[in-house]
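> tool_call: predict_assembly(chains=two)
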Amino acid sequence: MTAVCPTPHHEDDVVLLGHGAGGRLTAELLESLVLPALDGQGGPLEDAALLPGHPDLVVSTDSFVVSPLFFPGGDIGGLAVHGTVNDVAMRGARPLALTVALIVEEGLPLPELRRVVRSLGAAARAAEVPVITGDTKVVGRGAVDRVFVNTTGVGQRHPGLRPSAALARPGDAVLLSGPIGLHGTTVLSTREGLGFESDIASDSRPLHRLVAALAPLGEQVHTLRDPTRGGLAAALNEIARDSRVAIDLDEDAIPVPDAVRSACDLLGLDPLVVANEGCMVAFVAPAAADTALTALRARPEGRDAVRIGEVVPGGPEGRVTLRTLVGARRVVDMPLGELLPRIC
Amino acid sequence: MTAVCPTPHHEDDVVLLGHGAGGRLTAELLESLVLPALDGQGGPLEDAALLPGHPDLVVSTDSFVVSPLFFPGGDIGGLAVHGTVNDVAMRGARPLALTVALIVEEGLPLPELRRVVRSLGAAARAAEVPVITGDTKVVGRGAVDRVFVNTTGVGQRHPGLRPSAALARPGDAVLLSGPIGLHGTTVLSTREGLGFESDIASDSRPLHRLVAALAPLGEQVHTLRDPTRGGLAAALNEIARDSRVAIDLDEDAIPVPDAVRSACDLLGLDPLVVANEGCMVAFVAPAAADTALTALRARPEGRDAVRIGEVVPGGPEGRVTLRTLVGARRVVDMPLGELLPRIC
């Protein structure tokens, strides 16, 4: 506990935006307040949980509060499908079904609600994952901002595929399925009218078919994670922590689109902490790295897949470092709190 | 389509509070907008859906937006557990696990959030249903009213128990597990400071053990439903519609606590349309009615179980009627729209 990292332990403390940002404040809120109350086991926080008594089934839930509702490359409806499909997939599972729960503000134009729901339906059909049940609540004006969407997904694990945030091993190759930073910068630019939104679009897309492409590699696939809130920095820090390993990245290898880099420069953001909704990292045994890259690149959503680093034997546990373009080496920290509110 | 029942078909129409009230407006919104977009099959809307490929597993989702967060007999945390446990149970299933997704307003005092989450955890433990995964989002002040909770549940059906809203049959006994009207009147009275809240308390409680008590009756249990939003009137109208039967109720047999009756008289509400969170209706074959009543009454949450009516052979399909105390007979309509906003 340091001055830059306050723990919410005073009774007069309040919830901060940063508590929901996927960084250190989020982890603290979960560890100090939520998990103890819910009997959390203190194990690795995975994207999806195993269903008790059904070890082949996984479950994941996510609420979507993105603002604005519509942005280049996506909208809250598609995002709600992709986000949960991807969380299920990151446990090595094929999504079987989704639930959808809408909380709608009184006065929302019905055409806007229709557009959200149609996009959600279209995304579910495109992902070939049925929406099997749902819930619709309406609350008074001002009690919710337009519409929030919760999706929960159930998936069935591919035989032999058992990835976990705790299973990265020294020597593993760290693969990334595509460029980073598009979703966060697009939503932020659209919301704030920064002008980048004509050059970039969210990468919102389902990743379960990329996972299926890796399934034949079985237990050589150690860890899968989609770097959403908190970006690549948060995802890799969580993996380094839960697997007790050191991860070394090659900055030169990490694909950052020019428009993302420009937007991040202007905003003072590190592309590594910007949310993504359509790429994933895969930690695979070194002998399987080339096969895995080929499998990823064979699909459109993985055609830009690259190797961005490795798990270094003997490095400090939980540490993520970056070999920069100028040959220096810097630590990639877990982001603290809210950089980009309501990005998903 | 009549003057009192507008269909949302104009592009300048907006979402109304009544669209989320569980009555006719909700049904119209679902049928005209949500279900077509999501490929809804147009079948009976059950409390929980079957998981594709796993016919013994059911899934249900619900968002909780109750205001105030705390009220006599319960709070949003316990309600979020009971509501989804009960929806899963109404498909004849034993709940296996819950997911919890919180949307929290920036500035909410942490002690208040802690109280909600602890209550949620305590309710899950008491119900013996683990919370296996979750999500926490924080949005800016004014973007949500304090905290909303989504829970999704997965359950495993009891062998031989296959209740459905479409399976009520002529001759069935209609059983009710306990008194009606407590939850809705308690929340409303607390929110509006009407003063009844010292005499009444929400019936928020889990019902899955009552369902387990009926499991030995197997296929003689035709329909189970917990009458939440829209109350007993909405639940029975849905069953009459989906099963294409006529239901006849005996007003004298329906237990309405005195304080509920007083509150409803004052507010001009019919207790039949007030939300409940701790009672259920069961449609059982006539030969099994006495056994079912005995089984329900053997549990504390079912000790006041009564027979309130029957499915009448040859009656008009979809019609629910009430034999009143004075010997008259009146139609129990599907409630139109919002009577008690944000009751769950």
